[in-house]
Write a structure and sequence with these properties.
By secondary structure, the protein is of the alpha/beta class. It has eleven helices and eleven strands.
């Protein structure tokens, strides 16, 4: 599938490149592509009228200073919200159509966003170049049922199961999780505990599964994780990660 090309290691631009652009906007995606990103990590909610909206939060408070929920506004109203730099909210369909060469890592943030996300992916004929995931296993599986063959990564519960199984050397239980995904996406540490370990990486690779670590913005940490064998760096600083990767290669 196109999402897993080119061969790792790869950089996933977290919400685009939001240095001089608002996060999760078409401008942020364009900035990421301009510095050489091939993969963009993004999030989707649903608008009031049933469109998949590119947005991380369920409200506009942090990004626009407004006490209103994303799902209380229509897509037309969301496009008119001033996020800065001439940007408003975009639909997932606009992002997929606007960047036909980009691979999108899509985190479904709400149950209402499942169906419109699936529709946007199918309408854009983008099944092969997206990875669909969610912190909710229920949401992830519901989307996958409508997108056969699409790439996917572990949800929070299966990630926890995988980590526990790798720590306890429960290979069969870990393999059960790994057999259902194309990538494992984890923070390096969770609540002070190292999650991304050589054992976990080895188990994933033995199963043909990539390991992506989020969110890594320090080039020294990027290099250390790449030395450890991770396949993907999810970062707010694609402008730093891509030159580092190029120099190593």
């Amino acid at each position: 599938m196109a999402f897993l090309e080119p061969a790792p290691p790869r950089v996933l631009a977290h919400r685009g490149l939001a240095i001089d652009a608002p996060e999760n906007t078409l401008l942020a995606f364009a900035r990421a592509m301009a510095v050489g990103a091939t993969h963009i990590e993004t999030d989707v909610h649903a608008s009031h009228d049933g469109h998949a909206v590119v947005a991380h939060d369920d409200t506009l408070k942090r990004v626009a200073g407004r006490e209103v929920r994303v799902d209380h506004l229509s897509m037309a109203e969301l496009r008119r919200v001033d996020l800065g730099h001439g940007q408003g909210f975009a639909s997932l369909g606009e992002a997929l159509d606007g960047f036909p060469d980009a691979r999108f890592n899509i985190d479904i943030k709400s149950e209402a966003a499942i169906a419109p996300t699936v529709a946007a992916i199918l309408d854009a004929n983008a099944t092969s170049r997206v990875l669909v995931t969610s912190f909710s296993e229920k949401r992830r599986l519901a989307a996958l049922a409508m997108l056969p063959g699409v790439a996917t990564s572990t949800a929070a519960r299966s990630s926890a199961t995988l980590f526990a199984s790798s720590s306890l050397r429960m290979a069969r239980r870990a393999r059960k999780v790994l057999d259902t995904v194309d990538a494992v996406q984890l923070p390096e540490r969770y609540k002070g505990v190292r999650v991304v370990t050589p054992r976990l990486i080895r188990m994933a690779h033995d199963a043909g599964v990539e390991v992506h670590v989020w969110t890594v913005n320090d080039p020294a940490d990027m290099g250390r994780l790449l030395d450890l064998g991770v396949d993907g760096i999810v970062t707010d600083r694609a402008d730093l990660a891509i030159p580092l990767l190029a120099a190593r290669q």
